[in-house]
Model the fold of this input.
Amino acid sequence: MGSTSVHARQWYSAYVDWYNLQHHHSGLAGFTPEQVFTGRYREIAKVRQRALDDSFEAHPERFLRGRPKVVMPPASVSINPVQPDDDDPAPYSVVNFPTLSAAGNTETKSTLIFNDLSESG
Done:
């Protein structure tokens, strides 16, 4: 294994650890994937709620919408979710991978066809 691939594996391993253990995702209500996956978010949410309650009790005038409540992560998340009433088989055979800058432009999306992938190796 070359030094480039060793470096790439080290970088990727560190990135995945950071992403799962330290990065607080807006889509997960400010929790990390690890906290949500393990269920630790429930205890963390209790601590957050106590802090919000204490702040509200000390200065209710700061909270124009009333007592704040900790936002919890969604019950489920998915990429390209299939709707229950969707009879189109396309979502099962095609996945789009847009770049961030081109996400709004469907003409620039590259497409991976699962059938082609499985047939080629």
